[in-house]
Fold these 4 entries.
Entry 1:
Amino acid sequence: MQFEVFTLLPEVFPSYLETSIIKRAIERGLINVRVHNIRDYAHDKHHTTDDTPYGGGGGMVMKPEPVFEAIESALGLEADQTPPEAASVVPIILLTPQGRVFNQAIAQELSRHERILLLCGRYEGIDERIREHLVTDEISIGDYVLTGGELPALILIDAVARLLPDVLGDPTGAQDDSHAMGLLEYPHYTRPPEFRGWKAPDVLLSGDHKKIDKWRREQALLRTFHKRPDMLEKTDLSKEDKKFIERLKNVEH
C-alpha cells in the first residue's frame, strides 16, 4: 500500500516511520510512505503557504495554490483536471477535527485501497476551496483539537498498515485486537507463571485450547461489559455470549 502525506512539517515523520513494525513493513515493501513538503510547491521568495483570513479573525489559513499543486503533482494531474477523477480510486483525506471520527471499521475500509493521500492541516485551518474541490474525505481522531494533522496521519498509517497481510508477525494478530472483533481484548499473561504472589490463570497453563478460547471470549465480554458497555449493543453476540452477559447483569444487581 502507498501512503502519500502532505505536510508543512515533514521532519515529524521519520522517527516514527523508522521504528518497529512500520519500519519492517517498509523494508519488506509491504507499505511505502512518501512525505511531501507543501512548501516545495509555493513558488514565491519565502515559500509562503499561509495567509490572513478574509473577514478578519485570529490565526492564519493554509493557501489553496501549494496544496492543490502538491496533490495534483503526486497524482500526475494537470490543474484543469481538478477536482481529480482519480479520487474515486485514491482517497484524498483531510485530517481535521470536523471529519468523521476514526475507528476500526474505517481502518478496515481504508485498508482495501492501494493508495491513500493524507493532507495534514495546520494553523487556523485550510482555505475552504481545498475542502470543497480537492479532498474526498475528512477524518478526525477524536473530539479534541491538535496543533496539526501530522499525529493523526501517523495514527491512521499505523492503524491501516497493521491490517495488511504479513505486516504483523502473527497472521491473526489484528483480528484479536480490541475493537477489531467488536469487543475489548482479553487479558494477556506471560512468564513467569507467578510474580510477587500474583499467578497467571490456571486455564492459560492447562494446554486445553478449547477452554482457553472460552476463557478469552468470556474475559473479553467481561472487560467490555465493565469498560465499554456501549460496544455490546453493536456487536454480533452468540447465544452463549448473551447468556454470559445476562449472568453478569444479574451479579451486578
Entry 2:
Amino acid sequence: MNNLLKLSALELKNAISRGDTTATEALEAYLHEISVQDGALRAYNEVLVDEARDQARRIDDMRKIGESPGLLAGIPIAIKNNLCTTWGRTTCSSKMLANFRAPYTATAVARIRQAGAVVLGKTNMDEFAMGSSTENSAHGASVNPWDLSRVPGGSSGGSASAVAGSLCSAALGSDTGGSIRQPAALCGIVGLKPTYGRVSRYGLVAYGSSLDQIGPMTRDVADCAAVMNVIAGHDPADATSLDRPVPDYLANLDEPIKGLRIGLPREFLSDALDPEIHRAIENAVEVYRSLGAEVKEVSLPHSRIDSGAGGELSSFAVACYYIVATAEASSNLARYDGVHYGHRTERDAADIIDLYSRSRAEGFGDEVKRRIMLGTYVLSSGYYDAYYLKALKVRRLIKNDFDEAFETCDILLCPTTPSPAFKMNEKTADPLEMYLADIYTISVNLAGVPAISIPVGLSSRNLPIGMQLIGGVFREDVVLRAARMFEKASGICRLTPPPLGRDAE
C-alpha cells in the first residue's frame, strides 16, 4: 500500500487505468496514512471518508463496464476549506462558519470530480485565507512535514502539508497574495497561481475578489498541468471568468526551451534575500542557461524591496496589497453578522447593533478582525482618496511594470519566499513581519498574471527552497513548460521529507 503513496498523481491514474490497482485501494492507502500521520501534521479539518469511498467505488465500477472515468480517475485530492461543497462543512477554518454546509459545490471542485478525482476532505488554512503560516486557524495550526517545529506556510498550509506529507496525491488551494506559492515553497512541492479569470472562482469563499484565484498544489509539474487541464476554462456562473481557449497543458510540457527569454527582476535579488536562497536561484539560472535559455536582468521598479537600517524589509507592493485586499475583505466579510450568515452569539443582546458586534467579536479571530478594521478604515470618508484610490493607482503601475517586462521576456525568475520555513510562533507577535513572508508573491496577484513555485533545493537545515516563475497573461503553458524543463534537467523533483517527528534547531 505504501508504494501507492510514492506515485505521482498521473502515475497513480495510469496504474489504475492498467488495472495494477484500483481507486479503492489507492484511497484506502491514503486514508490509512491520514489516520497515522495527520495527528501530527493537522493538515485536515475534515476527512470525508464515506463520501470518498463512494466516489472510489463509482470509479472502479465505471472501469469494470468499460467507461472512461476521466483524466484524474481515482486520484485522491484534498481541497482547501474555503471551497464550497454540498458534502462536509465549509468552515474557512473559522469559528464564524463552524457548522456551515454549502448549498452548492464550487466549479473547480465539481470539475475535478467529473474528471474522476476522489475528494479526500477539507484542508486546514489561515482563517478566511488571511495569513502566511496557517497559525490563524480556529482549528489549530498545521505544521511542516519537513520539520514539525516549523510552519507549512499559508494560507493554503493544510493543502501544502497534506501533499508534502503524502496525505493526498494532489490538492486545490487558493492564492490571494501568495497563498498557494508560498506554502508550496516552504513544503517543497509545486504550486501554481493561474491568471486571474482562468479558473472559476464560483464557490470560493471570497477574501479579496479582485485578487483571489484557485490553483493546483502537486508533487511535480506534470501533475500540476493535469489538474489545470481539468479546472481551467470559462464558467458562466463567475462574472470574472474569462472566455478564452484553454490549451492542453500536458501537450507541449516536454518541449525544449532553447531560446526562451528569462528575465531576472533586479529588485527581487537584493542583499535582503537569504544567502542560501540567493545561491539556489543563481544555480537555477545556470541550469536554464545550459538548456539554451537567454537570461537577462529586468526591472520591476514599483515592486522594489527596500531594506531599512535595522534590516527590516518594505515594498510598495506590500503596502498596496494590504490596502486593496483588506478593503475588499471588509466588504466581503460584512455578510457574517450572525443574522445573514455565521456564528450568532448566545449572549443577550441589547439591540441589533449589539447582536452584530458580539457575534462578530466571538466568531472572528484576531487577524481577521485586524484586516477588517484596516479595510474599513481605508474605505472610510476622508481616507478613501488618500489610501484606497492611491493604492489602485500604484496597482496600475505595478501591472505596467510587468507588461513592459514581458515585452522582452517570456518568463520572469525570482525567489518565492525571503527565507525557508520559519519556526512556529516566530512571527505571530509582529503582523508586519508576517506580512513580509509574501513579499515576492504579492505583486503577481496585483498584476493578475500566472506564477508557479517549484522546489530548487534544500537549505543547510534540510528545509525546502522554492523558485518562482512568472508568466504573461494566460501563459500558464509557458510557465509550466519552463518549470518542467528545470525539473528534468536539475533532477530536483518530488522532494521527500524526513520521517515525521524531527525537530530542527
Entry 3:
Amino acid sequence: MRTTTLLIQLLLICYITSSCSQSEGSTSKQGSQQQISEDSLLNLVQYQTFQYFWDGAEPTSGMARERFHTDDIYPSHDKDIVTSGGSGFGVMALIVGIERGFITRKQGIQRLEKIVSFLEKADTFHGVWPHWWFGPTAKVQAFSQKDDGGDLVETSFMAAGLLTVRQYLNKSNSEEKALAERINTLWQNIEFDWHTQGQDVLYWHWSPNYGWEMNFDVRGYNECLIMYVLAASSPTHSIEPSVYDKGWARGGIIAEDTTYYGLETVVNHFETDDSPVGPLFWAHYSYLGLNPQGLKDKYADYWKLNQNHARIHYKHSVENPNNYKGYGPKTWGLTSSYSMRGYAGHRPDRDLGVISPTAALSSFPYTPEESMAMLKYLYTEADSLVGKYGPYDAFSHENNWLLPRYLAIDQGPIPVMIENYRTGLIWELFMSAPEIQKGLKKLGFSYE
C-alpha cells in the first residue's frame, strides 16, 4: 500500500514537470517490494517539502507558517503566526519549485511579490524584522516576553533568501526588475550596525519596549555565521572586521577545536553551550546560500567543518552508545526539533532518543550516501513517518513516539540543501551577489 501511494505521487510529479525519463520512476520487483529510483525519491521529497511553503503558506501574507499541525489543533500557537527566518528558507524553496517545474515561473513571481508586499508593510525595528508576525495584520507577535522587536538572526535568514531571489530575477523583465529593486530597499534598510551597540559584537535582539534587556551577544560558533557575513556585506549599515574577529571569533578562541568520534570539529563548539558539537542545523541554516565548498578564513575550513559535523552525528547513531532502539546507518541525525518533552536541542551528548529527519536530509551535500540511506528508509520502509509536506518533524522508535507535525525551519532546509547537492543552484545564486563577495573579502574569507 505504501509503495503504491509513493508511486502515485511520483507519477503526479512527473506529470506536473514533464521531466521523468522512461526509466525514472520505473519499478522492478525484488521479492515482494518495488524499488523506487534514488532520483525519483529526491524529486518526491523536494516536491513535498516545497509544498509546505506553497500550499501550506499563510494565505494573506504568502509567508511560511511557523508550524503546521496536521491534526489542525493549535492548543497554544495560532496557525496564522508567520516566521521571518523560516520564510527566508521558504523563498529559496520557491526558486527550487520553479526550477524543478513544481510551479510556473509566473506563479512563483506572483508569490514572491506577495511576500515582498507583506514585508514592506510589516512591523520592523531599525529595518530589522521580528521573529514572528501575525500574518493577517503584519503586526509583530512576541516570540517571548521581551522578544517583541527586532531579531537580527531571523532577519539574516530572511535577507539571505531575498538576496538569492534578487540574483535569480531576470533584470531584463520589467516586472522582475521592479521586484529586485524592492528587495534592494528592504535589504538596505536593515541596520546591522545598530545591533553592535557601538561594540565589537552583534546583539541578537532589540525591543521598543525592553531595549537591549535580552542582552544576547552572539559569540562563538552556532547557526549565526550568515548574520556576520551579511552585516559585513551591507552597502548601507556595514560592520567593521573587528566585530567579526573579536565578537564572533572571540579573538581566535573559535579556532580551538577538539576531536569527537575520531573527527576534528574544526571550530570550538564549546564556547556556545559546552558541547563537543552542536545540533546539525548549525551546518545548514547559514549554508543554504553561503557555499562552504572551498570556503576558508583564518579560523576554519568550512567544508571540512560541516562535513565532519554531519559525519559525527552519523557515527553517533551507528555506534549508538545509549543503545536506543532504531538507531543505525539508516536512521540518524539530531537537531533542534519536537520531542516527547516539547521543543528540544538534540545532539550526540544530549540525546533523548529522537531522530529528526531534517538533520540527515539537509546534510545531503556533506554525506550523500548516508543521507540517501535515511531517505530510502523514510520512504520505502517506515510506515507512518511521512505526510503531505514530507517527513514529519521528529520521531523516536525508542519511545514509540511520533508527532505528525511540521516546523518551517526544519522543512525549509530540505529542498534547498538537496538542490545544492544536485545542482548547486542556491549556492551559485547567493554567492553571485556582489555585496556578498565584497563582504567575504572584507572579513578575510577566500573561496574557490
Entry 4:
Amino acid sequence: MINRRATLGFLAAMIASPLGAKVRPAVVVHRTPACGCCGAWASYLRRAGFPVTIINEDDLAPLKLRAGVPENLQSCHTAFIEGYVVEGHVPIEAIEKMLASKPPILGVSVPDMPAGSPGMEVLGTNPDPFKVISFTGSGQQGVFLDYPDGFSLSR
C-alpha cells in the first residue's frame, strides 16, 4: 500500500532528478589540506554533477604507490572513480571518455600542474598545452587525450 510519505518521497526524487539527467559516479579525491588547486579541481567536478568526497592527507606518496601511479605521472592530488585512478588536473572530457570506453588501464593522469588545466586557471594567463596520459599496471603509458592549445572551460 502506498502511503503519503512514500508518495512525497517519490515526487521529491522526480523533481530533484529530471528525466534524462546524467547520473554521475562518485569521485573520492585525496589531497593535502593546504592545496587550493586540488579544491578548485574538485569544485570543477561538482559543477559538472559529480558527487565528490575529499580526503585530506599529509602524505600522498604511499597512496600513489599503492594506486600504481608512475612517478613521472604524479601530480598534486589523486582521485578514484569507478575503479580508475585519476591523477592531477584531468578534464571531465577525459574522465567521461575513460568511463564510457572502459579501457584496460589503471587510470589517467595530467602530470605536473599545467597552467590553464581544470583547477589551474589563472586570469590573464594563456593555458599551457598538455596531454592526458593513460597508464597500466605493467607500466605502459600512452596519450589518452591531447590538448595542444591548452584547456578552456568553453571547450
